[in-house]
Write a structure and sequence with these properties.
Blueprint: H1 9-21, E1 32-36, E2 42-47, H2 79-86, E3 95-100, H3 104-113, E4 117-122, H4 129-141, E5 144-147
Length: 159
């Protein structure tokens, strides 16, 4: 008889997005993304961090406050964009599991790449202008978005 306490697909892919977020060196926000095709195969992963070739020890500014040029916001690549750009195949028709609801810039990249569904864990910027724009873009362009419903299962890793 097979075991019945295994995790479902949403738990599996959101778990992978959470693990991917742990790769981020950002001291304030760790965000992960997992892009999955229609057959539940992982197409790509991403996390927020410095672009390739931009030294995150020497060149990256991790500040949250100050002028735009003096903060991380001018330099960091978000997890969704990294996952889209990291993919070796088209992500058209895929869905993305992401630990934080996409910003308006990532929403545009998600739409343009052909991703059709977003499953997100946190919506901590709900009702901010950027969040409103993201949702309007998704609604207008037919991208489904759903907040992940926690199952209460606890997973742990020993490394």
């Amino acid at each position: 008889m097979k075991r019945n306490d295994y995790i479902n697909w949403d738990e599996y892919f959101m778990g992978i997005a959470l693990i991917s977020a742990e790769r981020s060196k950002d001291p304030n926000s760790q965000v992960g993304a997992c892009i999955v095709d229609q057959d539940n195969k992982i197409v790509s992963l991403g996390y927020n961090g410095a672009p390739i070739g931009f030294d995150d020890d020497k060149d990256m500014i991790w500040n949250r406050n100050g002028g735009f040029l003096d903060t991380k916001y001018a330099y960091v690549c978000h997890s969704e964009l990294n996952a889209i750009l990291n993919s070796k195949i088209s992500v058209r028709g895929c869905k993305v599991y992401v630990t934080l609801f996409p910003c308006h810039e990532c929403a545009k990249a998600i739409i343009q790449s052909g991703i059709t569904e977003v499953i997100y864990l946190s919506d901590k910027y709900d009702k901010t202008e950027g969040n409103i724009v993201s949702k309007k873009l998704f609604d207008t362009c037919g991208v489904k978005y759903t907040q992940y419903k926690k199952s209460g299962k606890k997973l742990s890793l020993e490394l």
